[in-house]
Amino acid sequence: MSSKQHEKAAISLRDVCVDFPVFNAATLSLKNRMLQSMTGGSINRGAHGHVTVRGLEGITLDIRAGDRLGLVGHNGSGKSTLLRVLSGIYHPTGGTAEIHGECVSLINISLGIDPEATGRENIRLRTAMMGLPPAESRARMEGVIDFSGLGDFIDMPFRTYSSGMQLRLAFAVSTAIQPQVLVMDEWLSTGDEDFRHRAEARMRSLVDNTEILVLASHTRSLLEATCNRVIWLEHGRIRASGPTQDVLDDYFG
Ligand SMILES: Nc1ncnc2c1ncn2[C@@H]1O[C@H](COP(=O)(O)OP(=O)(O)OP(=O)(O)O)[C@@H](O)[C@H]1O
Questions:
Q1: Ligand 1 center–CA 134 separation, angstroms
Q2: Measured from the CA of 43, which atom of ligand 1 is nearest?
Q3: Cα 64 to ligand 1 centre (Å)
Q4: Smaller CB count within 10 Å for the chain: N or C?
Q5: Cβ < 6 Å from ligand 1: which residues?
Q6: Minimal CA–CA distance to 174: which of 142, 139, 199?
Q7: What is the pLDDT of residue 243?
Q8: Closest Cα to atom 9, ligand 1: which residue?
């Protein structure tokens, strides 16, 4: 266990912007420019004709231990981009992001899986990517294999698994450690009936025990049941921020 784990989790964003360069958007038609007013961030053309999409703009936000923060917003409003900044996957192209606390992101649980490697090798790889030292990774190995329910298939290449088996492994390893900061895009639910029940219990325990939860969702009841504050994003900016019920009434109303 690292000494970092004894510090409380805290996140502080100051005037964060994220710009995406787009290399094959030479001809932006008027139609495209009109669409941008309904969805997505702003499309800009620089001095040399380079096109960028601004995914986030001027985001200032403090998240403290105990916060359960929900993110709402229409398609392209910046929810996934913000989740990626909070997980350290994206660095802001403007402003600053300070993130203290060990973070697990359940945005794309199959990312980084090597299809040629066996299930066991993939557990080793993924736990290393999650920052676990080799001894801790070894100590958790049997627990992850048990949870996955893959039995002898654990020593077969990942590419030979059915899609449900692939998700079982990805879920079992992604949820193997209790993070201080948990970042999710919708509620993760996967597998057949039996696995779904076990996965639900594991998710509930992770969510209950994490210091900070950030959950992007389009489902009002999920946000109401899980979050104590909500941010409404629009065109990459914060349109409203406050107690869950107030923001959801405005957004869904
Ligand atoms: N890799 C990328 N390259 C270029 N533009 C991007 C990239 N990723 C996101 N964007 C742009 O950034 C803006 C925000 O996208 P983002 O995926 O964060 O939205 P979202 O709120 O998660 O949408 P959804 O609800 O549809 O998942 C959009 O305009 C999108 O086009």
A1: 36
A2: 29
A3: 26
A4: C
A5: 20, 22, 40-41, 53, 55, 73, 75-81
A6: 199
A7: 97
A8: 55
Rounded distance from Cα 40 to ligand 1 centre (Å): 6
Interval between CA 243 and ligand 1 midpoint (Å): 25
* Smallest CA separation from ligand 1 atom 2, residue: 20
Q: According to the model, what pLDDT value does residue 220 have?
A: 96
pLDDT at 134 over 50: yes
Report the complex ipTM: 0.97
- Residue 235 CA to ligand 1 centre (angstroms): 10
pLDDT digits (tens, 9 = 90+) for 13-61: 999 999 998 877 665 554 555 455 666 777 877 767 788 899 999 999 9
Distance between CA atoms of residues 196 and 16, nearest Å: 37
Locate 206 and state its tokens: 């992770």
The pLDDT of residue 28 is 57
Strand blocks (E) in the chain: 10-22, 42-45, 51-64, 68-72, 94-100, 103-105, 181-185, 212-216, 229-234, 237-243
Q: Which domains does the chain have, with CATH numbers?
A: 12-101+215-252 (3.40.50.300), 119-210 (no CATH)
241, 247 Cβ separation under 8 angstroms? yes
Which two tokens mark 81? 């981009």
Q: Worst-scoring range by mean pLDDT, 65-79, 125-139, 222-236?
A: 125-139
Closest Cα to atom 12 of ligand 1: 55
